[in-house]
Automatic annotation (TrEMBL):
The keyword Transferase applies. This is tRNA-uridine aminocarboxypropyltransferase. Residues 1-185 form the DTW domain. Its EC number is 2.5.1.25. It is an enzyme of class 2 (transferase). Keywords: S-adenosyl-L-methionine, Transferase, tRNA processing. Belongs to the TDD superfamily. DTWD2 family.
């Protein structure tokens, strides 16, 4: 039987507790997570919630929690990180607009899953949406993707926080690096860089 760490939740032989440092952010971080992603051992939302313990995780297939979230979202104080025709580059928003944002909402899942979540919850399309025009190259190599310049949910959150409140988010990247270094999966499952 595999033993798991009580703190980080990873198997004891891949425990990353020594690499987890909590960070304080003024933003409320909410992640809408696809149910298949929630079950995936390599999802980065678990790391995100270890470093930012107040992270709120809402399962997209939980209609009660999604309805509750929709009632709590105010289009002036919530921002959705999702590229759409109406989204604007987060790098271009003014300081006054950034200061109005209190809750940052991200979707955790494949691009197809995220699109499905948006279409199933049209209230999300009414929120101010932001995309990245100058995001760093992803360093998350233990998941495959066919999308160029795709970021892990942790990386997307870190970049958005940095753009909006200039907080040091290096603890997030450190945790992700530790997960990758301790990961015991086959090397051929890792993403190839161009």
């Amino acid at each position: 039987m595999r033993l798991y760490c009580d703190r980080c939740g990873y198997p004891k032989n891949t425990c990353i507790c020594d690499y987890i440092n909590e960070i304080n952010v003024s933003l409320n971080i909410t992640v809408i997570q696809h149910d298949k992603e929630a079950q995936h051992a390599k999802n980065t939302v678990k790391l995100l919630s270890l470093c930012i313990p107040d992270t709120r995780i809402v399962l997209a297939n939980n209609s009660y929690d999604m309805t509750t979230l929709s009632k709590q979202c105010n289009d002036k104080h919530c921002a959705l990180i999702y590229p759409s025709e109406a989204s604007i580059a987060i790098e271009n928003i003014t300081d006054s607009t950034a200061n109005e944002i209190k809750t940052l909402i991200l979707i955790d899942g494949s691009w197809k899953q995220a699109f499905g979540i948006i279409k199933k919850n049209p209230w999300l399309e009414n929120l101010p949406a932001f995309h990245f025009s100058d995001a760093p190259v992803s360093n998350y190599l233990i998941r495959h993707t066919s999308v160029d310049n795709a970021l892990s949910t942790l990386e997307a959150t870190a970049y958005a926080i940095n753009c909006l409140e200039k907080t040091d988010v290096s603890a997030l990247y450190k945790a992700q690096t530790a997960l990758q270094q301790n990961w015991r999966g086959p090397l051929d499952h890792r993403r190839k860089l161009p």
